[in-house]
Amino acid sequence: MKKRDIPNILLVNPWIYDFAAYDFWAKPLGLLTLGSILRDHGFQVTYIDCLDRFHPEAPQTDPYARYGRGPYHKTRIQKPGGCEDVDRNFSRYGIREEWFRQDLLAAPIPDIVLVTSLMTYWYPGVQNTIRMIKEIFSDTPVILGGIYATLCYDHAVRCSGADKVVTGSGEKDILRLVEGFTGFSADYKFDPDDINTYPYPAYDLQRKISYVPILTSRGCPFSCAYCASHFLNPKRMRRDPGLVMEEIRFWHEKYGVTDFVFYDDALLADAETQAVPMLEEIIRSGLNVRFHTPNAIHIRGLSKKIAQLMFKANFRTLRLGLETTAFEERNELDRKVTAEEFTRAVSHLKEAGFTKNQMGAYLLMGLPGQSVSSVEASVRTVRQSGITPVLAYYSPIPHTKLWQRAVDSSRYDLESDPIFTNNAILPCEFETFSWKTISHLKEMVARKTYIGKNDKHTEIPCL
């Protein structure tokens, strides 16, 4: 086939429309994995990131100032309908609309456009992204996938503007899907059922690689009431620890990447056969790199041995999935940790050498029926343990065990519109949004220890 006959696939990571957003190591891992697969199978692939912090038109910042993280460019916009009573500004986070239009006009005319979606309540950004794509490429089919598309499929079909909405992980179906639109056929060079055969995500399509997200596994052995991991990734898959080390070495040696971020839902599950050999490989490599765990690690797996290995491997940011210290009541949420296990894990981390500024414990706030005093008690317990409490605002997620309770307790009609599941507006409170409670708890958290004001626990994106 001639070069000009090879289909061009445009990948687009859409804007965030929200009351607050910050780049805490968030990349469209699934979309860039599909881009890598398509490229490996003969397609031309172009990528436009509406969240690009390093766009040439945007004010430039040091990409390594905060372990590769940083603020998005933002533009204040009108609040979505139904949220007028929320006393917060609403913004489009990412590049300006005119920059996106210029990027689209400069791109090769695509045969298909693949758009991903992250938080369910970010769908207005998806809508506007697709609208502008269709203004430029009116005859090109736009396919939407990702978290919003999977969790809110019917809403995405009705409201996104996409020509086709797909659900779940796309690796198994992407080649046949694209063939159906382009007629370009390619035989699989990898096994969709074996994550060890996947190519590395196409991070090189970005303008700058300030950090690299890493997956050592997919899926989670737990079934927490507030989490949709089982729905999004029903099959548990694990990578060979040696192959994980090879990927870390690749990005470090070829692209100079220093910061690596683990996206796993269960990084320390089956640790003796998974995490331990991987950590030992990292230590033996002697690479000058750093590691971070914003998706939280399970406290039960933090043995003395693991804590020591993580410290030697140069983990700089540890987030523990504590959620609450009301241990006698937590069976309704999860069965991940007991009070004794939390105390023991913190002790192991301190003995290994971690400081309180490196260690943070996520505490869920805004759960259905949750009292402020319960959150206060959790904050006090975590502070007394000598690590940093990190408030994680609860977002109701369809297809989770807690969803119906959230629907019943909310002042909004959550089932009518995903916009009302935004954790920034505390949707499971009957009273109108007020800064009073949030400010009180933030002051309590910050009284003796400092945390970044935007540090919040969120869904980790896939396609």
What features would you highlight for this structure?
single chain, 463 residues, alpha/beta, Rossmann fold, TIM Barrel, 2 domains, six-stranded parallel beta sheet, five-stranded parallel beta sheet, 14 helices, 31% helix, disordered C terminus
**pLDDT < 50 stretches:** 449-463
What is the structural class?
Answer: alpha/beta
Fold-level CATH name of the largest domain: TIM Barrel
Q: What is the helix content?
A: 25-40%
How many helices does DSSP assign? Answer: 14
Q: Summarize the biggest pleated sheet.
A: 6 strands, parallel
Our estimate of the beta-strand percent is: 15-25%
CATH homologous superfamily of the largest domain - what is it?
Aldolase class I
Walk me through this protein's architecture.
This protein has 463 residues and is of the alpha/beta class. The protein has two domains: 3-182, 3-Layer(aba) Sandwich (Rossmann fold); 211-446, TIM Barrel, CATH 3.20.20. It has 14 helices and 16 strands. The protein has a six-stranded parallel sheet with strand order 9-12-13-14-15-16. It has a five-stranded parallel sheet with strand order 3-1-6-7-8, sandwiched between helices. A three-stranded antiparallel sheet has the order 2-5-4. Helix 8 runs parallel beside helix 9, helix 9 runs parallel beside helix 10 and helix 12 packs parallel to helix 14 (435-446). It is globular, with a radius of gyration of 22 Å. The two termini are 29 Å apart.
